[in-house]
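debug: dumping io for the single-chain case to check the tokenizer round-trip. Nothing else runs in this session.
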Amino acid sequence: MTQVKKGACHCGAVEFEVTLEEEIQKGARCNCSLCRRKGAVMALVPRENIKIVQGEDKLTLYQWNLKIAKHYFCSVCGIYTHHQRRSDPTGYGFNVACLEGVDPYAIEEITMVDGASLSVAEEEAI
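debug: decoded output
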């Protein structure tokens, strides 16, 4: 059953909607240098399933290394809201904890993405 979930950063300056094909039953964490530090549980959707409703002008973009992935966070409160994936630029990850009515601690299946182990050659091939 398709559903639209509303999400926001901590201060509410950035609001977004995510269209989900089903309830979030699993999440992901990544061990790359950035994701290790932010520690967020993420879920993945195609680009067309995430929409910024308010505060696009409050989003700040952070990129590093090959500058393929695009990580967005609120410039007011600093909360990571979503990112364009390096391994699949047509896919986006979003911070599950930003969604209304979703408890990221209740998600039992958390997959570990090994972003830290990709070699430069593998990164360039992505």
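debug: round-trip ok. The CA atoms of residues 32 and 116 lie 4 Å apart.
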